[in-house]
User: Fold these one by one.
Assistant:
Number 1:
Amino acid sequence: MYNAHIIQQSGISNYSTKNQRDIILDTADNLTQIGEWARDCFHKEQERIELFLTLTRKNLNSLQGFPLSKEFVRDYKKFCSGFEKLEEEYRIGITDRSEWSKGILKWASSLTQSSHLL
């Protein structure tokens, strides 16, 4: 069972492209799981959704220390802007769970596709 105790801060930074890609793909996997939970069983899985949103934010914060490729940065900035809007919508209350889920799943797919640009 996942819980907030698995979230740990690391002072270690390894700027390799492999690590960047691993973080991006982990983030995409988190978003896919969030989107599926939101679509299929939102109220039952809300605690996990919140945890995975936190893990996703941790991944994004860790990427701030990486020098990202120019090709990837454009897509990544679009993703960050879109994800921040979805995060905010979650915090204030999702009005259309189906649309919110589609947005999360769209960004998961986008990250997976653009990970080859790293």
Number 2:
Amino acid sequence: MTREERRVARLAAASAAAFLVWLGIWQGIATPPHAIRPALAVTLLWLPILPAVPLIFLGSRGAATWCSLIGVFYFGFAVMELVANPAAYAWAAAAMLLCLLMIGLQLRLVRLGPDRRG
């Protein structure tokens, strides 16, 4: 792995971790305790991406592809919260920005892969 690939892999893993932390804080605060336990809500939201973060840090392009694919659904979730819940406007807007950053860095890591011929 080259120096550029290591740098992008670290940035991609850090962006995914930052997005997950932000999502956890947001949903941990916003989830009403009587509807569902906040810890359960955060766990269910983290489940698709959390196992991929260490693999992304190691430079796995498959994990980065998975994370960018799932990131699109998280972006959709943030857009729906932005429109439907005016009280969570700042939380959802920040989540959208972090999600776009995460997706962009994941795709950058995927693009650093070996040259494909054909």
Number 3:
Amino acid sequence: NDPSPEDAALDARRRSDLAAIAAALDTYRARNGSYPSTQNDFATLCAQAFDAGCLLTTVTKELPAKDGTHPYWYQSDGTTYTLFSRLQTAVVDSGCPAQTPPALANLPVVCLSGGGH
């Protein structure tokens, strides 16, 4: 059951978007001393103006806040972070913590975490 080329391309874009967001997060932390915090709550990265992830627009003009249709999700205590994206095709090692945003429940997801050092 191989993914269609369209699904594979969309998932590849999602992974590259998460990597770009992670780079922006590292730049933001270098400038501000911490990541934008959600108090460890799940939030869309920058779907609403008050989302913590919108602070990343201070370090990059090219913030991919969604995959075209679905928003990316973000969780941070200021020291560590996890980014969440839905996927078309489930992967064996998603990199996700046990808790994922309720909006992504029962969907294939991929995650990227960082910080803590």
Number 4:
Amino acid sequence: MKQIAWILILLIMILTSCQEKLSMENDLKALEQLNTTWNNNILSGHRTANTDLFTEDGISIEGGQIYSGSEEIRALLSSQTV
């Protein structure tokens, strides 16, 4: 019984050591790009273009109010001033 336990432990260790290491590098680059696009849209006067950065069921919370869906978010962004 002890041999089976040791074999299983060894097998688990071998299988888990073969997993790909997760890297946050690509996620951080994507976030930087999103932030840059968001700010460029605001600075260029195309604030409503940021609506395209949300999914169809995306939400935005501003001032304690929840805006859901692209139309509500577009209305929110178009009403904001720089």
